[in-house]
């Protein structure tokens, strides 16, 4: 064998060895991430998540690369497996990216059931004339909710057309909620010439209005009825809210800012009862409420004091202030980090757990950097026990009593799903333990 041939084979061997070591490094890193997820309990999905068929998966990693969250799926042993499944928010990018159709999208799991309303394929509930679309029905994310809102509007329009028993002074449809699903439904119904009565307690955008300023919202291209397609995959809160406002302004529709407290009556003769207003009559009802419902409370003395809030307000309010944030999820972490950016004098993040595990990896990393830089004080294994009018916050931290002073307290420990409201309406609930929402495309 001449020298040139020998060098050729040595080069090939070194390249192959390099790829082997790289693959081993990736495998070990993936195994560590999966082990970490099991250690901190984020391997169990909380809502929508992918389910991989190991018999069909060929380990291309297309699913893991497509996932915007970057921590949900790992490749171990040549197969995709779930890692931090609790961080999945239902983008569905993995489902679309899999070249061999080895992924289903399921809701809930064997270990953790998810309560969602019983909904027929046309989005109608067991109560005739009341429909549900969007996150409340188990399908989260902006693009998904917009698609469902649009489809539900078409079904309702056809239902009305098949039931010509119209009452001339009634609205055709009452739309409750103005998040992505509610906006899409209202726009589509308006486009179809239907008379709508539209309600939301926050105004256009729904819960989007409660996001921290400049929060980046991950999505995929979407199309609001009667409006140009939006092709961006990342939008700030302000860009998303502006898109919603411009689309509804162009259509000449806007929701009434009021909280709906009850819906009485029957199909073709519903009465929508909203706070501080007379009941509104409607033939059909579409609920697009989301799953957050009302903010979850600490239930401690002083929680109703004026400096306590459950949402991150406009940034100017925090400049030079002592900000105390309660919670360990993405909303709480993002609020603390945003308060730093908005010029808060002191930022404290209080969480009852020993570690911040519920937030996504990117937010945890940003928080670690902020803590290391002295920008955020992290209080772990800590529970607020009471709040005083002078801003004193009493904390039980690992059995030790302590106090801190705050000008603003932001409580972000999740929301209570509107289950009680749905029960009052007589809408049946199902518990999903891993049932397929989007099955194989083959």
Supply database-style keywords:
3 domains, five-stranded parallel β-sheet, FAD/NAD(P)-binding domain, alpha/beta, 442 residues, seven-stranded mixed β-sheet, globular
Overview of the structural elements:
This protein has nine helices and 26 strands. The chain is of the alpha/beta class and 442 residues long. It has three domains: 3-94, no CATH class; 119-293 and 418-426, FAD/NAD(P)-binding domain (3-Layer(bba) Sandwich), CATH 3.50.50.60; 308-414, FAD/NAD(P)-binding domain (3-Layer(bba) Sandwich). The strands form eight sheets. Strands 6, 7, 8, 11, 12, 13 and 14 form a seven-stranded mixed beta sheet that branches. It has a five-stranded parallel beta sheet with strand order 16-23-17-18-19, with helices on one face. The chain is globular. The protein starts with a helix and ends with a strand.
